[in-house]
């Protein structure tokens, strides 16, 4: 779906998320959200916070699982996805802190495999992801599933692609400070979500958006696996859609 600007599009996405949360509330059920970081979802979070401030939306039945985190990364560090999520959403809404899950960037390497297995188990025990919000990297990554990611992949440690590290360099005051690894939910983790929305804004995403939507399904462009998802929508502004 193509929108003339990201503000209008983000409002609609926030409304879909809010209505899912409310539907679940009415049935006294939990709502399990898979959440993303990066600049793309910021306005969606802003809208959700606004709805909460106006008293229209409560997060008391919401359980969240974030897609990814750099490795190594302290949660207090400004570049961490923990910091990002607190700043843009969690500090401003009534979510129970126990219901927030973000991959831990401080896990010692020898413990990571078990940590990732446990992250998958927690998602399953929560009832699976009702909704997954995604951005897309210029490499075609979703979460941090870089080119080469297998469709059966679960949560795991990965090596960041050079392009991804270059794109993150300004946040880290130089490429040399960007972590080389990350923990990310896998392609299969994302594909199991009942509903998926991917957001892409701006001309820099136009080429990867074209490959994702019109190209073949390939691990060279991990986002292209979403072509096989039965309930995924890609939401674009006119610049991101300009090569379609
Ligand atoms: C990072 C995140 C991704 C995100 C991507 C795009 O690499 N791990 O989840 O989709 O950045 O970021 P942006 O939305 O800022 O373009």
UniProtKB/TrEMBL annotation:
Domain Glucosamine/galactosamine-6-phosphate isomerase: 6-233
Keyword NAD belongs to the record: no
UniProt keyword list: Carbohydrate metabolism, Hydrolase
Source organism superkingdom: Bacteria
Active site (UniProt): 68, 141, 146
GO MF annotation: an example: glucosamine-6-phosphate deaminase activity
Keyword field contains Nucleotidyltransferase: no
GO BP terms, alphabetized: carbohydrate metabolic process; N-acetylglucosamine catabolic process; N-acetylneuraminate catabolic process
Protein family according to the UniProt entry: Belongs to the glucosamine/galactosamine-6-phosphate isomerase family. NagB subfamily.
Role summary: Catalyzes the reversible isomerization-deamination of glucosamine 6-phosphate (GlcN6P) to form fructose 6-phosphate (Fru6P) and ammonium ion.
Name assigned to this protein: Glucosamine-6-phosphate deaminase
Residues of the full protein shown: 24 to 267 of 637
